[in-house]
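Researcher: Sequence recovery benchmark, item below. Answer with residues only.
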C-alpha cells in the first residue's frame, strides 16, 4: 500500500458523517428510531456507536501501519517524536474549540437560546457554570476532570481521551505485536475481562492486529472471484454491527461478554474489505469523500455546536427535514474545511518541522 491511504481517510469521513447523522436524528427526527426502518440494516446509516468503534479500529490500524512503514524501533527519541506528533495532531484544534465553547458559555449564549422538547439530548449540555479553571482541567483531555460529558464543554471528547491515552501506549503495543504476533490481542482481552481496562482499548488493539492480518485477508479476497464467499463476509459484518437490534437483549449481552464489543468484529471485517477490495478503494477515492475524511476530526468536534445553533430552523415551516439536514451538514462541512486548513494542517506541519529539529528525525 502507498504511504497515504486516501481511501481510509474517506472511510473515516463516512464514520464522522454517521456520527453527525445519529445526532441530527436524535435532535430533529427522534421518531425515526421507532419506525420499521430502524429494525432493518438501514439503521446502520445512523448508528453512531458503530462509527465510534470504527474510529478506534481505524486509528489503531493507521498509526500502526505508519510505524511499520517507518520501520519503527522503540527508543526514547522515537517514542518522544511519536507522542509529539500525536499532540500536534489532536490538541491544537481541540483547544481552539474548547476555548470557543468556553467563550459561548461565559456569554450565556446557551442559556439565552433555549431548545425545544424535541432536542432533549442537547438540553443537558452547557447548562453548568464554567470558569477558566474548568478549561484548564478539561484541556488535559487524558485525565478527565470532570468525566461526565454533561459537565464538559465538548461533550463528545471522551473518545479523544481514549485516543490520546492509547496513543501513549501504542509504540509499546506495536513492538509487542511485532515480536509476539497475536498475543497482544489475547493479553488486552484478558486485561479488559479481568482487570476492567476500558473496552474501547480492545477495539484500538484490533486495529493494530489488522496490520498483520490484512495481507492474508487480501490474498484470500483476490482469490475468491465468486460473490457468495465475499457476500457472506459482508452479511456477517452487517449482522455483527447490528446485533443489538436483531438479537434478544439477553443473548446480545452474552455475545458482549464473549467478544467485549460484538460490533467491533463487524467493523473490523468492513475495514478488511475496504483494504482488500480495489473497487471499494476506487469509490472511496472520490475527491469530495477524501476531503470529508481529511476534515473528519473537525466535523466530529463542531457538529454538536452547529446542531444547537441551527435548532431554531426546525420551526421554519417551509423547511422539510431533508432540506434541514442538507443545510446543517453543509454548514458543518464548510466550517470543518475552514478549521482544517486554518488550524489542523498548519499545526501538523509545524509539529513536523519542530520534530525534525528537536528529535533529529528527517
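Model:
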Amino acid at each position: 500500500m502507498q504511504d497515504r491511504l486516501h481511501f481510509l481517510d474517506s472511510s473515516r469521513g463516512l464514520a464522522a458523517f454517521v456520527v453527525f447523522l445519529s445526532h441530527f436524528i436524535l435532535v430533529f427526527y427522534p421518531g425515526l428510531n421507532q419506525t420499521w426502518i430502524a429494525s432493518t440494516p438501514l439503521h446502520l446509516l445512523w448508528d453512531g456507536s458503530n462509527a465510534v468503534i470504527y474510529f478506534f479500529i481505524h486509528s489503531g490500524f493507521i498509526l500502526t501501519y505508519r510505524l511499520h512503514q517507518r520501520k519503527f524501533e522503540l527508543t526514547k527519541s522515537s517514542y518522544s517524536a511519536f507522542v509529539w506528533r500525536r499532540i500536534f495532531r489532536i490538541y491544537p484544534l481541540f483547544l481552539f474549540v474548547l476555548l470557543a465553547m468556553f467563550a459561548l458559555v461565559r456569554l450565556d449564549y446557551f442559556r439565552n437560546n433555549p431548545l425545544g422538547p424535541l432536542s432533549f439530548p442537547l438540553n443537558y449540555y452547557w447548562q453548568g457554570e464554567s470558569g477558566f479553571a474548568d478549561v484548564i482541567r478539561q484541556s488535559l483531555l487524558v485525565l478527565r476532570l470532570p468525566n461526565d460529558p454533561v459537565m464538559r464543554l465538548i461533550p463528545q471528547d471522551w473518545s479523544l481521551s481514549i485516543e490520546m491515552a492509547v496513543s501513549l501506549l501504542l509504540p509499546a503495543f506495536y513492538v509487542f505485536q511485532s515480536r509476539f504476533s497475536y498475543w497482544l490481542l489475547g493479553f488486552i482481552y484478558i486485561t479488559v475481562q479481568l482487570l476492567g481496562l476500558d473496552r474501547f482499548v480492545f477495539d484500538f488493539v484490533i486495529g493494530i492486529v489488522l496490520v498483520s492480518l490484512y495481507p492474508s485477508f487480501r490474498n484470500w479476497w483476490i482469490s475468491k472471484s465468486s460473490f457468495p464467499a465475499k457476500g457472506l463476509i459482508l452479511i456477517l459484518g452487517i449482522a455483527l454491527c447490528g446485533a443489538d437490534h436483531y438479537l434478544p437483549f439477553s443473548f446480545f449481552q452474552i455475545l458482549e461478554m464473549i467478544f467485549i464489543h460484538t460490533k467491533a468484529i463487524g467493523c473490523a471485517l468492513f475495514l478488511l474489505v475496504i483494504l482488500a477490495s480495489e473497487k471499494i478503494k476506487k469509490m472511496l477515492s472520490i475527491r469530495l469523500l477524501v476531503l470529508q475524511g481529511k476534515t473528519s476530526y473537525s466535523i466530529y468536534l463542531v457538529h454538536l455546536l452547529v446542531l444547537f445553533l441551527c435548532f431554531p430552523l426546525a420551526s421554519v415551516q417551509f423547511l422539510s427535514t431533508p432540506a434541514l439536514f442538507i443545510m446543517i451538514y453543509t454548514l458543518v462541512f464548510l466550517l470543518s474545511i475552514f478549521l482544517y486548513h486554518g488550524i489542523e494542517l498548519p499545526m501538523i506541519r509545524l509539529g513536523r518541522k519542530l520534530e525534525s529539529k528537536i528529535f533529529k528525525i528527517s
